[in-house]
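Example 9 (inverse folding). The structure is encoded as follows.
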């Protein structure tokens, strides 16, 4: 892992597919003096992702990749990351699964935020599944990405109580608020020496 010394912020790429609320939060965090990251690039698999409007607003380079052929697409993404000298990737609602080959190339330098208390509820529809199984708590997890889905080393987690009246949407909103707090804290935890 690249250590942060206070002068050289880590060149970071954020991968998104949707609204970009975690992206916006990470951009604001990156502008703080104490932040170890500088967001140089936003990558999306959807050209209509609302997060792309946010990257434009903050003058951050963005690229959209159509995933017609995963191998070729990942090759192009890696070329772009190398050109920009990116040394950290933050996944923020990116809905494509990265190949193990891609993950190996960025070994230990890809972070993800997942809306459940891993190892429970890997994958999609986490809120529905947690409510359906009468869980008392759900939450969010920041973890290092490895070649298995949502299975990498956990950095930080935050519990959120599931209320009797919760719907997947209401639970999702409350967990998202915690995601915005947790992601920067996890980054600081990894990179503050």
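The amino acid assigned to each position is listed next.
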């Amino acid at each position: 892992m690249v250590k942060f010394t206070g002068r050289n912020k880590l060149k970071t790429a954020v991968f998104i597919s949707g609204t970009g609320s975690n992206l916006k939060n990470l951009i604001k965090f990156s502008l703080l003096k104490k932040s170890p990251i500088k967001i140089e690039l936003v990558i999306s698999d959807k050209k209509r992702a609302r997060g792309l409007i946010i990257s434009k607003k903050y003058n951050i380079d963005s690229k959209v990749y159509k995933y017609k052929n995963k191998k070729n697409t990942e090759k192009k993404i890696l070329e772009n990351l190398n050109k920009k000298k990116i040394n950290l990737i933050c996944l923020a609602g990116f809905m494509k699964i990265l190949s193990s080959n891609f993950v190996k190339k960025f070994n230990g330098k890809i972070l993800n935020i997942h809306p459940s208390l891993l190892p429970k509820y890997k994958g999609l529809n986490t809120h529905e599944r947690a409510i359906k199984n009468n869980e008392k708590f759900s939450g969010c997890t920041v973890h290092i990405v490895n070649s298995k889905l949502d299975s990498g080393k956990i950095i930080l987690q935050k519990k959120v109580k599931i209320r009797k009246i919760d719907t997947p949407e209401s639970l999702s909103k409350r967990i998202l608020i915690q995601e915005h707090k947790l992601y920067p804290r996890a980054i600081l935890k990894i990179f503050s020496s």
